[in-house]
């Protein structure tokens, strides 16, 4: 089981408690599609992803960004069993969506950048460490059921 | 994944906006790296003080960003432009090149916190590619 310090727990609850999922989700996903364009392979049915402007204004990308953040919320609310919480989602990403698990880290990095931009100097090194630890656990859990 | 003309233009445009804060960016990025990735502290065991914002960390952050500035100026030929720095990292400092990625990530985070409006997705991809290309040039002399 993952050990969380009081600081880490409080930091994660604080960041996500104050977060506007409907803003951050679309921002993180669209950034991922721009910064790591090969991730677009999973969104063939999403229409125009031709350039950064198109991606930023694409309603399907925005909608899916919200879905992703709501999925992340489940880990926020179950920090003591992220592995169990994501077992089904892991199977889904492997068996149905066929997502290369290396992509989870790419999206996690984009989410880190988006949150850093929103928080400014409040995103201290300690906060960054806690946030990245949380995302690393999420990434690991989502990759766990792949075979 | 080499740098296109568009990437180079984007890097230079972003650098123009952020370069006067280079010392602060370097100090913050290095401080962050040491606390978020504690294994990186192993390279600095000779410093009296590794805490964020300490004198050695600030001085070294400034030096690192001097290297980034050099890379920007040699953006059309990073391999040759960073050859001397590569030799120092390879033979003197012997920094495992995996750490270049770690420091690059910390630089990106700091730029995002300090310049949220300028660090658009397009600026982000250009800077990420540039730092990766610089890291590759820095690894040139390793083996």
UniProtKB/TrEMBL annotation, chain A:
For this protein, the record's SUPFAM superfamilies field holds: Globin-like
Q: Name one GO cellular component term.
A: haptoglobin-hemoglobin complex
Q: What GO biological process terms does the UniProt entry carry, in alphabetical order?
A: hydrogen peroxide catabolic process
Q: Does the keyword Nucleus apply?
A: no
For the Globin domain, which residue ranges apply?
A: 3-147
For this protein, the record's Pfam families field holds: Globin (PF00042)
Entry GO MF terms? haptoglobin binding; heme binding; metal ion binding; organic acid binding; oxygen binding; oxygen carrier activity; peroxidase activity
The question of whether Heme is a record keyword is answered with yes
* Gene3D superfamilies membership: Globins
Q: Which UniProt keywords apply?
A: Heme, Iron, Metal-binding, Oxygen transport, Transport
Family per similarity comment: Belongs to the globin family.
Q: Could you tell me which PANTHER family the record lists for this protein?
A: HEMOGLOBIN FAMILY MEMBER, HEMOGLOBIN SUBUNIT EPSILON
Q: What is this protein called?
A: Hemoglobin subunit beta-2
TrEMBL record, chain B:
InterPro entries documented for this protein: Globin, Globin-like_sf, Globin/Proto, Hemoglobin_a-typ, Hemoglobin_oxygen_transport, Hemoglobin_pi
Q: Which GO terms describe its biological process?
A: hydrogen peroxide catabolic process
Q: Which GO terms describe its cellular component?
A: blood microparticle; haptoglobin-hemoglobin complex; hemoglobin complex
Please provide, alphabetically and separated by semicolons, the GO molecular function terms listed in this UniProt record.
haptoglobin binding; heme binding; iron ion binding; organic acid binding; oxygen binding; oxygen carrier activity; peroxidase activity
Q: Which UniProt keywords apply?
A: Heme, Iron, Metal-binding, Oxygen transport, Transport
* UniProt domain Globin: residue ranges: 2-143
Under PROSITE patterns, the record lists: GLOBIN
**Pfam families per UniProt:** Globin
- Family in the record: Belongs to the globin family.
Record PANTHER family: HEMOGLOBIN FAMILY MEMBER, HEMOGLOBIN SUBUNIT ZETA
Protein name from the UniProt record: Hemoglobin subunit alpha-like protein
| Species in which this protein is naturally found | Lates japonicus
